[in-house]
Structure formats: structure tokens, C-alpha cells
Amino acid sequence: MRLKTIRTPLAAATAALAAVLAGGPVFAQEEAEPVSGDVVTAPGLELRGRLDGERYDVWANVLGLTPHGSEETLVVYCIDIRTPLDTESPYTEGDWEESEVANLEAVRWVLFNGHPNVAPEDLIEDSGAEVNPDWSDEEVAEVAYAGTQAAVWHFTDDWDLLSDNPVKGGNNGEDEAVLAIYGHLTEDTGRVPDPSEFTVDLEGAGEATYEDGRFGPYTVRSNAGPVELTAEGARLETEDGDEATSLDDGESFWIVLDEGAEEITVKGIAAYDLPVGRVFLATDDEALSGDAVNPMTSGDSQKLILAQPREGEVPAEWRFALQAPPTDRPSESGGAQLPTTGTSLTVAFAAGLALLVGGLTVIALGKRRRATH
Predict the structure, then answer these.
(1) What's the per-residue H, E or C state across the chain?
(2) Which of 2, 243, 277, 305 has its CA 20 to 30 A from that of 255?
(3) What are 63-112's pLDDT values in tens digits?
(4) What residue spans define the domains of the chain?
């Protein structure tokens, strides 16, 4: 038996596009509301360094941000070493461009690989230093925070940590540990992806065929991590026939129709941690109003950056109209029928393939395979 591939006519694709647009997008990504909160501080280490060619020592106090309406305190870092911190005015989330702080990519990489995204003990040891067994958990965290903060300042303010006695009074191993973390996080920085770059896609709709009672293969494409899959009107299978519930980028699944089903909806969700790098500025209306505890003008307060990732999802949905080929004998399962020699094989994408991610609709032309002698 020889198989021949024929493209679906353009007119059918045009009709499919009209049908999809008439129904509107199934998913429309909602933009998160900016987070606002209050700054809290805890004692940290005093670091010794240089700024603009001159000595510039500064306290690396441990900073936190408690979002309004939440009891959780998020770890933040200073990205504006020259400006004093205002602990009485609220902060709100702003744009990196608005903050006018340099080297976003390097800073995000530092935070992603620094404290608290890496446990304090692990960060110290990964840097080649040692944890003093006499340090309390709080002191270990102070060291990890100070080393990370020093690396952040290196990129945002061109501040350099001294290699000789970098921590004032750091004679119990703090000197070596902070300096090691600083070097570890400022050498060979990489790049952390931006959430706007995350996508979930599907390949193979135009080439999918019907064989052994199932349609496929369809290949998942995701740069946001594994994709959790669910289906209505069908069962999704791996190549070996196991149920396909979670697939990585480049892995494929096949569709087995439920009995009597022709319209199938496949949903995919890739969960990820939103990379660090969200900037907070004390320039919102509340902070600038006369009702604020300590009203100020824009630019008068230190800028902060969130150090912890937040969870997010990239959802996708694909709709198919599939019809198994007719046969002169029923299958044992009573579901999708197997093709026989000389029988026309129809893979009908009646509504095309609708890919909806963030409100974007894309139509992929299907292909029809016909069995001949």
C-alpha cells in the first residue's frame, strides 16, 4: 500500500479561520496587578568597597517587602546604593526602564543564583568558602545576603567590594565567605529568560495521520518547562500507548477518539517560576500624596528589586475536528476504526487547528492522507 499526501484546500482554511474567530479566543492572558507593600529591615553586615574610585563603605542590611494584604515578607535587594532607604513610605512595582538602573540581565542572573534562591549554606559552599559551625542560622543568612547584595551593587552601581578585609569586623570567616560569594556571582554571569519569552506550541498538525486507531504524532514545543496535558473527547497516548499526561519539549503524543467523539479539545499548561527581577519604586500616588507617613518626590528613595521568583503558568488550548475512517467491520473497542486497503482515510480539521496563547489565534493547515493500492 502506498500513501499519498494532499494539502487541505485554501478555501477550507479560510472558512476554518472564520469559524474560529467567530467564537473568540478561549483563553486571554490577564495582566497581573502591580504589587505594593511596605519595607522592613533587619541588621546585616557592613561592607567595605570602592565607588567612583574612592572608598565607599555601606551596610548590607537585610531588606524585605511585605505586600499589602499579605503576611508574607519577600526578600528584596537595594539597586541604588547612593540613595538612602525610606522605610516609612510604601513601595509599588514599576518598570525596569522607569527605574533607570543598569545591567538588568546580569542583576537577574545574580539574584537567580544567589540568596534566597540558593540556600545560604549551599551558596557559601558553592562559592568555595566554608560555613563557620559557630554561626547561627541568622548569621549564615546574613553572610549569604551580604555577598549577593555586594554582587548586585557591582552591576547596578559599579561598586567594587574590597578584596582585603571586605567585611568590617568579619574575622570569624565572614570576610572569606562574602568575598567568595561576590566573586562567584560576578564572574561569567548568564541570562535568565523573561516571562514574555515563554511559549507553549504544538507541531505536526499538518502532517498527522491515522494509523492503528489513533491520530498523530503531535509534538509539544515549550521553553517554559514540562507541559501538563488534558483532553476532552479523546485519550492522549505516548508512542508506547501509555497515557500522555506530561510531556517535555520535543516529546509527542497521539490522539485516540472517545466513542462517538469528533470534536476534541486538548489543553496544556506549563508551570514555571517567574524569574527574579521585579523592580519596586517608592513613587506611587500614595507615597507622593500628603496622606503618606513620609511623603516624598519621585527619585528621593532607594530602588529595590525582588529576589524571589513567583509562580506563573503558560496555558494553551488546541481544538481538533477528527473523523476516523469508515470500515466494514467494527473494532473490538467500538471506538476509532482501523483503515483497510483501498478505504479513503480522512483526517478532517474542520475548524483548523486553533492555537490560543495569550489571545493569539493561529490556523495551521491540515493534511489529508489517502490510502491507495
Answers:
(1) CEEEEEECCHHHHHHHHHHHHHHCCCCCCCCCCCCEEEEEEEEEEEECEEECCEECCEEEEEEEEEECCCCCCEEEEECCCCCCCCCCCCEEEECHHHHCCCCHHHHHHHHHHCCCCCCHHHHHHHCCCCCCCCCCHHHHHHHHHHHHHHHHHHHHCCEEECCCCCECCCCCCHHHHHHHHHHHHHCCCCCCCCHHHCCEEEECCCCCEEECCEEEEEEEEECCCCEEEEEECEEEECCCCCECCEECCCCEEEEEECCCCCEEEEEEEEEEEECCCCEEECCCHHHHCCCCCCCCCCCCCCCEEECCCEEEEEEEEEEEECCCCCCCCCCCCCCCCCCCCCCCCCCCCCCCCEEEECCEEEECCCEEEEEEC
(2) 2
(3) 998 888 888 898 999 988 988 887 777 887 776 666 677 788 888 899 88
(4) 2-30+195-273+323-372, 36-192+275-310
